[in-house]
Amino acid sequence: MGPFGNRSAGGQSRRGLKLWPILLFGIYFAYYWFSHGNVASYTGRKQLIETTSREELALGLQSYREILSQSDVVRDGDAPRQVRDIAQRLVQAAPKVEEYLAETAGTPADTDWSAFQWETSVIRSEQVNAFCLPGGKIAVYTGILPVAKNEDGLAAIMGHEIAHALLRHGGERMAQQKLVQFGAMAASMSTGDMDPGQRQMVMAAIGAGAQYGVLLPFSRSHESEADRVGLLLAAAACFNPEEAPRLWERMAALGSRKPPEFMSTHPAEGTRIGQLNGWMGEAKQVRQRFCGGAQG
Ligand SMILES: [Zn+2]
């Protein structure tokens, strides 16, 4: 142990907490915040992201190829075409929603569209699942189609997934995981001299704090953001936004067969449906503005 550690242990008990690792982490965190923080499009929320959109695209592409190579990809029939058409409409609506939010809420409109290469696949599987990876690679599992029930329901699911990609939640999660890892390292170093039993308790408390104080609230806010922006995407693409709360009711009725993405990290269905209904007025305005009175 260096002079640093000795000094901060000071006159206190040898088994106390060392402060310098926590201090270093604090300095690192401040540096990180200032060098990697940016204000996100669509939400205006300050986001910590270390990767560029282009790096996220490359990572997304790599996982997509891996997943598809291990999946039964549906080539024929209506589903692949329908999924592609819905994605195309939602993607074309994205700049409109970004512009609308910039106008009404003052959020930045600086999406790097060149970092998205949209592509859709339908995977034959009983899994109730769908995803959109960073960079825009989309997959819909056939198991989710009965829950989607109709075009508007499928647009609600895909709008939510596409919103995750547009909002760059993947890049943000990578940065968070790195910071949490560094934080855990700092905590482990600063408790190095403690009595092992006590240390275990402190580390467990810190772990729970990171899980319930940082990671879980963040993933919940990601879900809410994807719900709202997804709803607006569907509305701007002239789908019926009112299908979204109905879809989540059907999803809730699945119980444990819900998609993994929609399990623990999501807000309770009641909260989610309430929020969607709360945003419905805005969604209808968006639909009116971009689609007029036409039924899509
Ligand atoms: Zn989600």
Describe the 3D structure.
The chain contains 11 helices and 5 strands; from the N terminus they run H-H-E-E-H-H-E-E-E-H-H-H-H-H-H-H. The protein has 296 residues and is mainly alpha-helical. The chain has a domain of 201 residues. Strand 4 and strand 5 form a beta hairpin. The radius of gyration is 22 Å and the shape is globular. The N terminus is likely disordered. The site of zinc ion has 5 residues, from helix 6 and helix 8.
How many DSSP H or I helices?
Answer: 11
Mean pLDDT: 89
- Alpha carbon gyration radius: 22 Å
Helix content range of the residues, please? 55-70%
Structural class: mainly alpha
Q: Uncertain regions: pLDDT < 50 for 5+ in a row? A: 1-13
Instruction: Tell me which ligands are bound.
Output: zinc ion
Main sheet makeup: 3 strands, mixed
Q: Count the E strands.
A: 5
Order of helices and strands: HHEEHHEEEHHHHHHH
The rough form would be described as: globular
Query: Span from first to last CA?
Result: 68 Å
Q: Approximately what portion of the residues adopt beta-strand conformation?
A: 5-15%
Give the key terms.
296 residues, mainly alpha, two-stranded antiparallel sheet, 62% helix, globular, disordered N terminus, binds zinc ion
Spell out the blueprint of helices and strands.
Elements (H helix, E strand, L loop, with lengths): L2 H7 L10 H17 E3 L6 E3 L4 H17 L8 H28 L13 E5 L6 E3 L4 E5 L3 H4 L2 H16 L2 H22 L5 H41 L6 H11 L15 H10 L1 H12 L5
Parallel strand pairs: 3-5
Antiparallel strand pairs: 1-2, 4-5
